[in-house]
Amino acid sequence: MTDKYSTLNFEEPPDFPPNNVYPPSWTFDNDKAWQLYRRAKKEQWDEDNINWQEVKEWASGLDRKQRLAIAYWWSLLSTFDNATPVFAYAVVKSFEQHLPTPVKGILTTITYDENRHNVVCGFGINSVLPGFPNEFKPQDDLERKALLNVLWTWWNGSRYWKAYLDAYQKYSFDVLFTSFMMGEAAATTVFSTMSKGAKVKAFQEVFKNTTVDETRHYAFTHLIMSQNAERMDDERKKLVTKQVRAGFVFLSLITYLPPKDFWKLPPWFNEVHLKMEDLARDAGFYIPTLKEKEEAWKTAVVRVGASLKHYGIKMPSIPELGIEGEEDLPDIDEGDIIPVF
């Protein structure tokens, strides 16, 4: 049997295979990226330091439907905060593509951020309705539909995960990560509003800290765009436009209402969803109203639109918000959804 390594010439440097994490490489010339990486390390926080006992004591005074509504909201949020593997995969790809050292570092910190956000969702659920949704036994039709809303939302997330893995075969790294700029911009506004409106101190801290994280994530998307836009041809710029629209479609389920494209949900979804939000609000768990959510998205559109225009990238229309952009796009399908929360 022939040894496949028998022809190696140790007198010459080896040829490394493409798309491999070896050889290691380091770069030190991207000052803005290094500043953001250092900021990310300084701004870390520990979800164990949140007073979850305070939440449990507060929840003990709520009725079953109110506790269900709050657990429901955290469960839907977890669809987007289940992003640890999304960024872990991005870290692998960044090493395979030998991206600048601070960019790889930033992606590593975002992976940690997203894991923390996901654990926070679990703490939020466990503090008000332990076992929801996987061990939850509905007692009436509203509870049954609320449970199904969560499970079918997660099922849509599984479609997104497959599309995300495939996206690396279709899109360059800059297009992938510029594309979720819109969602990050909206998230900073929504979570900031929730922090200010929360009545329970633990929730104030959670949403304040999450806002800091999301603001930094937005800064990362802006960094990627600003450092790559000049090298983008018209085709790649069109892809960014399309992905900004996809970001709204994907994330609007929790930060607004789900548009008809992409989301495959029960016919009662919106009715039950709005009912759950009202129950949570009545319990004292602050959720922005539909009007406040619209304002958050409009603020995000203005913020992102200004950035895109600066780099010659068209802003898509967002008809759900009554916003006419520079380009109307057809319906978004699962193959187009690549932004992450």
Structure description:
- There is one protein chain.
- By secondary structure, the chain is mainly alpha-helical.
- It has one domain: Ribonucleotide Reductase, subunit A, CATH 1.10.620.
- Helix content is 63%, strand content 0%.
- It contains 12 helices and no strands.
- It starts with 30 loop residues before the first helix and ends in a 31-residue tail after the last helix.
- The model has no long low-confidence stretch (mean pLDDT 90).
Write a brief structural summary:
By secondary structure, the protein is an all-alpha fold. The protein has a single domain (31-39, 48-321), classed as Ribonucleotide Reductase, subunit A (Orthogonal Bundle). The chain has helices at residues 31-42, 52-59, 64-81, 84-96, 101-128, 141-167, 173-178, 181-197, 201-228, 234-255, 269-283, 290-310.
Number of helices: 12
Query: Under CATH, the topology is which?
Result: Ribonucleotide Reductase, subunit A
Question: What's the number of domains?
Answer: 1
Q: Total number of β-strand segments?
A: 0
Query: Can you write the helix and strand succession as a string?
Result: HHHHHHHHHHHH
Please name the CATH architecture.
Answer: Orthogonal Bundle
Helix content: 55-70%
Radius of gyration from the CA trace? 22 Å
Oligomer: single chain
Average pLDDT for all residues: 90
The gross shape turns out to be globular
The fourth-level CATH homologous superfamily is: Ribonucleotide Reductase, subunit A
What is the terminal-to-terminal distance?
51 Å
Fraction in beta strands:
under 5%
**Level-1 CATH class name:** Mainly Alpha
